[in-house]
Amino acid sequence: SVLSTLSRHSSADPDAAKNAVMELLHSQGTKLHSTLLIGLANQIKADPFAKVKKLIQDLIERMLQEAADEADQKGWCDKATADAEQKRTYAVEKVAELNAQSAELEATIGKLTEELEVLDVEIPDLEQKQEDATSMRKEEHAENQATVMEAEAGLEAVNEAIDILDKFYKTAAKEKVDLGLVQKGPLDDAPDSGFDNGEAYTGAGGESGGILGMLDVIKSDFERTISTTNKAEDTNEKEYQKFMTESSKSLAEKNVAHEMKTSQKDDALAELESADTDLRAQTDILKVAIRELLELKPTCVDTGMTYEERVADRKSTRLNSSHQYDL
What we know:
By secondary structure, this protein is mainly alpha-helical. It has six helices and no strands. Mean pLDDT is 78; it is low at 181-188, 197-206 and 317-327.
């Protein structure tokens, strides 16, 4: 009867089976006046292993809850660690990229600065050379003009002198004094004038060729001076114009280069400032990521056991507890 009652309730509800057996033993003991059955019923009712079973059951439930909590914590740790590591990796890559960019920009700025310093010397120097050449050209032109004007004036004077002397000598050679116009008287009483009576004064007619020849030499000197000076003026003007054309072209190129390199340097400085700002920001992000990983380490890494080891340990403990409970 006890076995049939136990088998009837044990599969459905262990507590109901225990109560049914306890009531059966108590009723039979009362009916049979058996203290043994009544005592056995009381022992079953007292259930000395109930606290142990309760402790085991609580332990199992707590371990199940811990497993659930640990699974949630592992998921949180995995996500937090992955986020921090991704943030750290990205920041490291950006810091390296920005450092390389900054180094390249600094090299570019240094090169442009050197080139601008050279242009800052060359441009004023070339402008000064143009100014000096222009001043010298003006002086040369003025001197050449004065020389030509003086030579032309001298030439004109010499030509007039030659013309006058030439006419004088030609006219004087043909002239003779008309004695009919002179008061008659004893010619013997006339003073000695150095030339015969009735002879006209013809000047230094014998020397006329020498004087005119000398004037011709002076004339040639003036003409040569005018020709040489005009030729030198033309040559100097052509050289000046050539220098001004070439130097102006070079000056324009240098000014354009100076403007372009200045703009490039300004752009590079702006980019470097932006890169430095980004570098500081990425460095801060990297510091935060490293700090997050350090803060996660005690909770998610340095726990004494791995997550897999803790799962295996809980399974073993739960299995032993379940076995004890079944006993």
